[in-house]
């Protein structure tokens, strides 16, 4: 079963290189979705895109 990893590439709190990029390599069947210019608060700043991506992933 795939695992979705969503991360903004401008996250200053949890940098993408030390979190999402590494996690995507370690987690079997990981699907990495990067939000260009996305900050740490994707649930606030990109909620419409985030919800659409989550629904699309769940529906397969």
* Average of per-residue pLDDT values: 95
C-alpha end-to-end distance:
11 Å
Rg from alpha-carbon coordinates: 11 Å
Helix content: 40-55%
Strand content: 15-25%
Envelope shape: flat
Name the poorly predicted regions. Answer: none
Biggest sheet features: 2 strands, parallel
Give the helices and strands as they follow along the chain.
EHEHH
Widest β-sheet, arrangement of strands: 1-2
Account of the protein in words:
The chain has 3 helices and 2 strands. It is of the alpha+beta class and 60 residues long. It has a two-stranded parallel ribbon.
Topology:
Blueprint (H helix, E strand, L loop, with lengths): L2 E6 L11 H7 L3 E6 L6 H4 L1 H13 L1
Parallel strand pairs: 1-2
Task: Provide a quick synopsis of the model.
40% of the residues lie in helices and 20% in strands. The protein has 60 residues and is α+β, with helices and mostly antiparallel strands. It has one domain.
Keywords:
3 helices; 60 residues; 40% helix; two-stranded parallel ribbon; 2 strands; alpha+beta
């Amino acid at each position: 079963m795939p695992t979705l990893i969503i991360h903004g590439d401008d996250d200053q709190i949890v940098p993408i290189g030390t979190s999402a990029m590494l996690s995507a390599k370690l987690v079997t069947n990981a699907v990495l979705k990067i939000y260009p210019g996305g900050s740490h608060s994707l649930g606030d700043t990109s909620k419409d895109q985030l919800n659409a991506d989550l629904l699309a992933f769940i529906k397969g």
